[in-house]
Write a structure and sequence with these properties.
The complex is a heterotrimer of chains A (348), B (303) and C (320). By secondary structure, chain B is an all-alpha fold. In chain B, 72% of the residues lie in helices and 0% in strands. Chain C is built from 11 helices and 12 strands. The mean pLDDT of chain C is 89.
Chain lengths: 348, 303, 320
Amino acid sequence: MSENVLEIKNLVVHYETPDGVAEAVNDVSFTIKEGETLGLVGETGAGKTTIALTIMGLLPKPAGHVIQGEILLDGENIVETSRNRLKQRRNDRMMRKLRGSKIGMIFQDPMSALNPVMYVGDQIAEVIRLHNKVSKTEAAKRAMEMMELVGIPGMRYKDYPHQFSGGMKQRIVIAMALACNPRVLIADEPTTALDVTIQAQVLELMNGLKSKFKTATLMITHDLGIVAEICDKCAVMYAGQLVEYGTVEHIFNNPQHPYTLALFAALPSLDKDVDRLKSISGLMSDPMNLPEYCSFYERCDARCEGCMKLDPPITEIEPGHFVKCIHFMDKKQVAATGGGSEHGEVTV
Amino acid sequence: MAKMYTPAMAKIEKKRARRKGKTKQSTPWREAWKRLKRNRLAIAGMVILILLILVAIFADFIAPYGIDDQMLKERNLPPSSKYIMGTDNYGRDIFSRVVYGTRISLPIGFICVIIAYAIGGTLGAIAAYYGGKVDNIIMRIMDIFQSIPPMLMAIAIAASLGNGVVNLVLAISISTMPARSRIVRAAILTVKRNDYIESARAIGASSTRLLVKYMLPNSIGPILTSVTFSVATAILTISSLSYIGLGITAPTPEWGSMLSAGKELMRQAPHVLIFPGLMIMITVLALNLFGDGLRDALDPRLK
Amino acid sequence: MSEILKVTHLKKYFPVPAGTLHAVDDVSFSMQYGETLGVVGESGCGKSTLGKTILRLEAPTSGEIIFEGRDITNIDDKEFKALRPQMQMIFQDPLSSLNPRMSVSQQIAEPLRIYKVYKSKEEMEKRVLELMDIVGLARRYVDTYPHELDGGRRQRIGIARALALSPKLIVCDEPVSALDVLIQAQILNLLQDLQKEHKLSYMFITHDLSVVKHISNNICVMYLGQIIEQCETKELFKNTLHPYAKALLSAIPVPSLKHRRQKILLKGELASPINPKNACRFAPRCLYAREECFASAPELVDVGNNHKVACHFVKEINGL
C-alpha cells in the first residue's frame, strides 16, 4: 500500500457553467508507484488536464467541482468533495503547502511558470525557500546544483528567462519542479511546444532524473511515441473515462480497446507505407452531453446493439491490463448486468 | 443524458428551461451581449444611461417648470413637494433645470467624442495600417498636440474663440483628438499581427478591404469601450469649463455652470450645489460602470 | 512544360536591429505538376518564410521564382492579382487564421467576392455549399462562427477557402500540426483525395517527418535558411546522408516498443540566423565537425540518384 505514491480513486469532476454541466472526469482510477511514470494519453477534451489540475488543487473556481472520489498522496486524501466554504478554504491552504514541495508541476509553455523579471537562479531558489527553512545563500547554492543537474551552467544563475531558448527554459522549469524533491511530478505536455531535436534532449533529461529522484510522474501527452520512450504505464482516456490501462508492454504489444486501436491506426508510420491513414469519423464526445451508455459508441467500429444498454465496467483482461468495453466483460460482470449482453467472455 | 446526475445539474437545467433555447446565430456580438447581461453593475449603468436619454427626450413632459421661469418670491427654497429639488438664487426650479440639463451635457459630450474619434481615429487607423514613415509623421504631430494638457488646451481654445457651444465642441474635440488617435492605432496594431490578416492577403484582399472588413470589426471592442469612458471625460470637461465660466454660460442650465452659480450659497442653500453635482456624478458613474462591463464582455480572451 | 514551380537561388533577408536576418538563404528547387514537395525543418529554419515568399506575401530579396513558366519574382501587385488565384495557402492554426467575425460561409465566399467571380448571389452561395461538400463540412455549419467549431472543422474551412478559386498550387504551412491524431488523419486523407480529384500540387511544410513521409513525393530538409538535403522521399528515409537529417530522424519518438532507434543527441542550441558567417551552419552542433566545416560553407551537391546534400564530409560519414 505504501508503495503507491499517488492513488486516484473513482474521481468525478464536473465544470458547472450557466450553459450546462461539463462532465470532465467520470470515475477515473489509477495508481503511480515511486519512480514510476504513467503516460496519460488522449485527445483534446478527454479530461487529462482536468485530472492534472485536480491533483494540484488548481481547478478553476467557481466552475470546477470534485463531485466524488479520492486522491491519495502517500495515503492521505487531498481533495475536498464537500461544497462547504470553510472546508474548501482549508483544503486550499493545504494544497498551497503541497504544491512545489510534495507536488511538482511542468506545463506546456515554460513562460507560464517563469517570471520574466527575475533571475532564473533566484526563481529556483525561491521555490526552495518557500518550503524549507534555509538561508538565502544555502538556497542559492542548492539552486545552482539543480541548474547543473538539468544541464544549464551554474554561471547563468543571474540570467533572465528571455535569454534562454525554449528548450532551456523548459529545463529551468524542470529544475524548479524538482527543487524540493517532490513525491509526485505532473508534466502536462511538457515537450509539445519544443522542436523535435530539443524534445529528444529534454526527454533524455527527464529519463535520467527519473532514476535519480525516484519521483512518481504523471506524463500527460497526446503523443504515443513519447509514452513509448519514457513511460512505464499507460492510461488511455476518452470523454473523461479510462478506456484502457496497463503497462506500456500491454498497451503497445496488445492494445484491445477500439479507441486505442484507432489511435494507433491513425498514426503515419516511419516504418511502413500506407496509402491512406485509417481514421474514424466523428469528434470527441461533448462533455456536456454524455450518454448513459458507452461514450465511445457513436464512433466505435466494433459497436453493437448491446453497447447501448449500459456503461461498460472495467475488466482486467490480463494481470494489470484493464479495458472498459462490453465485449471484454468477464462471466461475473455479465451475470451482474443480468446477462443483458450476448458478448462478454474474456479474450486474452 | 449524463453519466452522473447531480443536484447542480438539475438546478442549471431548470434555469435553462426557463430561458428557452432560441437557436439564434451565435455571432461574437451575441456572445458578448450574453456576457454583458451577466454583469449586474454594467446593466445598472446601462439602465441609468437609458433613463437619462429618455429624460432628455421627454424633458418637456417631465419638467414642471421652464428653465427661465423665475419665481422671485421663492428664491433658494429647500426641496419641497412643490419644488422637488428646491429653487436657486433666481427662484428657478432646480429640478426642471437639471432635467433640461440632460439635453446639454449628454448630446454635447457625445458629439465631442464622435468628432474626436472620427478625425483622430481615422488618423490613428491610417498610421497603424501603413506603419513606417506615415505612422511616424502622424504620431509626431499628435505628440505635439498631446504635450499640452487637454484641459489647458480646452481652456485656451475656449478662451480665445469665445464662449458658445460650437467653440466648446471644437475645444474639447481638438484637445482630446491625439489620445483617441493613439487608442485606435493601438487597437489596430494589435489586430494587424494576427494570422487572419495574412491569410486574407493570401486570398487577395485589398488594403481597404483588410482595414474595413478584417481589422475594424475585430478592434472595435477596445475602441467602443474607450468611447464610453471618453464620453464621461467629455461631460466632466464640459462641466469644468462652464464652472470656470468658459464654454456654456448662464442662463443655460448646464450642470457645471449651475454648480458655479451655487458655490456662493454653499452654506445657506447647499441643495443648489448638491443636485447638479449629483447629476454629473451619476452620469459619469453610469458611463464608467457600463464601459467596464463592455470591456469585460468584449475581451476576446474570455472566449 | 511539366514544371509548375521553379525556384532559383531564392533569398529572403530581414533587416533587424542586430544586422540582417537570413531567413531564406539561397534556396533552389523545382516542382512538377501533381507533385507534393515536403519542406521539413524545425523552428527557425525558414520553411514558413519560404512558403510565404513563394506566394509573394513577402517580397524576395533576390533570386527567381518561376510559376507556370512566368517569372513572378518582381512583378507588381496589379499583374500578380490575376495570378494569385492559382497559388493559395493553408495555414497552421485554423483558429487564428480565420477572421473571428465572419461566419463559415462568409469566409469561404471571401475569395469569390474579392475576385467577383459570380454575378449573382445565388450562384455564389451555391458554390460555397459545393465547396463545403467537397471538404466534408456539413451544410448546417453555414452560419456558424470559427470559435464554435473544433480544430478539424476549422481547418476544413481554410481548405475550402483555398480551393474556392481552383488553384493549381497550394502551400500547406503545417496544416495538421495543431490537430489531434484522429483528426489529423482525416485531414491528411482529405488533402490526398483533393489532390487527385483537382490535380493539385502541394508544397507541404512541416516539422513532422512521419507526416511528410506519408504524403510527399520529394523532400527538402532545411536548416537555418538553407536546404541541407534534397531528394525523393523514399530515398531520404532509406538513405539519410546529412548529419542533421540523421539526428532529426532519430529524434522522433516512435510509438512502438520494438523498433527502438539509436538516438543521435545534438549538443547545444540553434545558431543565430543573423549575419551568419561563411561556414557550415550546422557545424557547432555536429558530431562529425572538423576544421573545414567552420571555414567554408558546403555546397548542395548531387551525390547520385538525384540526391543532393550540403556537407563537406558526406562521403566519409556515410562510407560512400
